[in-house]
Design a protein that fits this description.
single chain; about 70 residues; mainly alpha; elongated
Amino acid sequence: MWATKVLFILLALLVLGTVFALARLALTEVFDDVVAENAKLREMILTALGILIFVSFLVLCRKIIKWTI
């Protein structure tokens, strides 16, 4: 039973990691001209995106654990 939880959590981490990588790539491609001269703004946006995805991961893990119990 705990192996199922670990498997689902690892799968969720893989999916969210992929989403973060794609979002970072899209942000770099779309906003490269806008924030090219303002690296601080770009880092703030990427940090906010990372925090949002991390919190989403924690919520997803909590739901998976509740679902498998």
